[in-house]
Amino acid sequence: MDIILNPPMPIEPQDFYKTLLSVSGVLFGIAFAAMLFVLQSGFSSFKFSRRMFLELYLHFGRQLLYSLAYLTAAPFLVLFFSDGLVAISWLYALYFVYFLKATLDYAKEEGYILTIHSTKFVPRQYGRIRAYFRYIANRGALRNVFFLVPVIMFLSYPFAISIIETSSPYLTKAAVFYSCLIPLFYTLYKITKFIPEFFFYTGMEMSSRSQETSEEKSKEEKQQNIVEKRALKEYLINHGIGELNPETPCQFIDGDLSVNFLDENNNGEAFFNICVNVSNVTPGKVRSGVLEYAHALAKKLHESKVSINTFVLSFHISMGGKVSRNMFFRMSRNELAEVLSFKRNQPEDMARLKNVFFDELFRE
Fold it and tell me: Which helix (H) or strand (E) holds 107?
């Protein structure tokens, strides 16, 4: 126990930092170039949900690059600045925050993929932060214990050394040494997984494709569209859009609402027929309710990681059993990004999309 609380120092720490500076600088350049090559070329063969696997690999690469950046900067400060311990302490704290965020992002993205290919789900009422940690929880307790807890403990170790030695979080010489040694071992471990990690994603992608496709089509692109739509449907169901099942419509004002997603169409857009039945409601209240529902559904569509980029919401509204009236929205991901931006993000913004059509009854 004493060796853990008071760890030994190397005989020649300066030689260690000199060697580390040269090695980490070379590895930084090589890792950056290799990651760019894999992101640009390696995923071109992916046919199923390429975007989600790209994001997963990006977070994997961020862990590696953040570590190499610290391993390049910290030895430089030790070797060329006599009073660099304070600067290194702040640098390590910054590295700790960024590395932890990249690790959690990786876990969240992996949890997202596992969620849409399992019976697990994220409740509809969850906000962005709760949904983020729910994805991580959906990876499973054992996976999180073995892959998240050790990383956090090891990276916190230099702070623990300093607090025990000086009762201060500022890193001591011993803490600085282990703040370099631990990321160095972790970086070497990640480098050994650089190529295997890519092939692991390739296996996941092929497995996902084989699970989702039941029969081959003559044109590969059309088949991909069908697979993407099935993945989108699973995503929506797992995020609380239960009204995709016609047997379980949701409540809408004083009536109900059901959604028919045309997931068997092989075109490049996701088309939703949404049936609304209300009784004694004013047109203004129906318009407001439809815009709120369309805004909420559009947010879920925008947050999905499928490769479909065009969405259509076609509302068929029956008021008191009379002739059905319509409200229609066609939107791209770029348009949704603008509508859902921080400064806007209001249901009424849906009415300002370029491709919308409102029945005369529902126009302002």
Answer: helix 85-116
Dihedral angle of Cα 53, 58, 59, 65, to the nearest 10 degrees: 150
Burial 58-84 (b: 16+ CB within 10 A, else e): ebbbbbbbbbbbbbbbbbbbbeeeeeb
Give residue-wise pLDDT tens across range 270-328.
999 999 999 888 888 999 999 999 999 999 999 888 888 899 999 999 987 777 889 99
Phi, psi of 57, rounded to the nearest 5 degrees: -70, -35
Asked if 258 and 275 count as a contact pair (C-beta separation under 8 A), the reply is yes
User: What is the CB-side half-sphere exposure of residue 137 using CA atoms within 13 A?
Assistant: 10
Angle at the Cα of 213 from the Cα atoms of 211 and 215, rounded to 5 degrees? 135
Task: State the CB neighbour count (10 A cutoff) for residue 31.
Answer: 20
Q: Is the pTM of this model over 0.70?
A: no
- 3-state SS of the chain: helix, strand, coil percent to 5? 65, 10, 25
Return the C-alpha torsion angle 160, 161, 165, 167, nearest 10: -20
| Cβ pair 231, 306 in contact under 8 A | yes
**Inter-residue contact 218 to 99 (CB < 8 Å):** no
